[in-house]
Amino acid sequence: MPTFLSGMIGLDSVTVNFPGVYVSGFFYLGIASASYWALRKLWSFSTRIFRWGQSKGNSSKYLSAHTTIKRKSDRKSKQPEKTITHSAVIFGCNTKVGNAYAHYLAKNKFNLILIERSMGPINALEGKILE
């Protein structure tokens, strides 16, 4: 015979008996679901930290203007290493952020493609960069 726990349910203080087996089952179900939720959050957090670390390690590759592609050395072919020059498109170069970003990329020798509604700000930015 299972043990019974009595509890108060409702406004009329009606006593209802719950079998102890069901109460302990719900307890373990709650522990299992809380553990599952905690492990999912821990996994999500750890993968985000790992991806952030990977992006920090690869950032120099994306922030340099020239990328050299190294080929496997063949004794027959004497092709030089291929160098790629990167370009950047900047929308709204008249704004403070666009202006600063254009100066930063020009300093790092990127090819710039500037887009603005009128030619005046583009010509002014070009003059500042070429100085």
What features would you describe in this structure?
There is one protein chain. With 131 residues, the chain is α+β, with helices and mostly antiparallel strands. Helices cover 52% and strands 23% of the residues. The protein starts with a strand and ends with a helix. It folds into two domains: 4-61; 66-130, no CATH class. It has helices spanning 20-63, 96-107, 119-130, and strands at residues 4-9, 14-19, 66-69, 82-85, 87-91, 111-115. It contains three helices and six strands. The radius of gyration is 32 Å and the shape is elongated.
Q: How do you describe this structure in short?
A:
The chain is α+β, with helices and mostly antiparallel strands and 131 residues long. The chain is built from three helices and six strands; from the N terminus they run E-E-H-E-E-E-H-E-H.
Overall structural class, as computed from helix and strand content, comes to: alpha+beta
Q: How many separate helices?
A: 3
Which segments are poorly predicted (pLDDT under 50) over 5 or more consecutive residues? 1-11
Order of helices and strands: EEHEEEHEH
Q: What is the CA-atom radius of gyration, in angstroms? A: 32 Å
Report strand order across the widest sheet: 1-2
Q: Number of domains in the coordinates?
A: 2
- Major sheet size, sense and barrel closure: 2 strands, antiparallel
Tertiary shape: elongated
Q: Strand share of the residues?
A: 15-25%
Topology, number of strands:
6
* Proportion of residues in helical segments: 40-55%
Measured between the Cα atoms of the first and last residue, the distance is 93 Å
Average of pLDDT: 76
